[in-house]
Specification:
Layout: H1 11-16, H2 20-31, E1 33-34, E2 38-43, E3 49-59, E4 62-70, E5 75-80, H3 82-113
Length: 122
Amino acid sequence: MTIKKAKPILWCREVFGEDAFVDGDGNLLSNGAHIKPKVVQHIDFYGNGTTYNVQTVRTDEGVTVFIAQQNSQRAVRYILPPAVLAMIDRQRASLTKQIRRRNGQRIAEERAASGLKPGFMK
């Protein structure tokens, strides 16, 4: 049995057929830099499996991500435009800042409780 590799531009077309998602994907792929689609399989604690096909495309307008989600009940496709990806990056940076601040405060309190002075007060 041989496994047929899909061409990057046609991977959605082979899985889903012709529709606006595929047309948008093909147009962006022909005009921008892209990576091969990657497959992520996730099984939740109930044993339900979900497959995600993810492809990222960079054009003059920014980065766009195409996601095709498939499980036993349905197949759903998403296009994440540059504005949405920028918002996700801002939220991730904000969460990182909050976690670092909390850890820094906790470490400072632990050091103060053990009698250690900060380096700038020595």
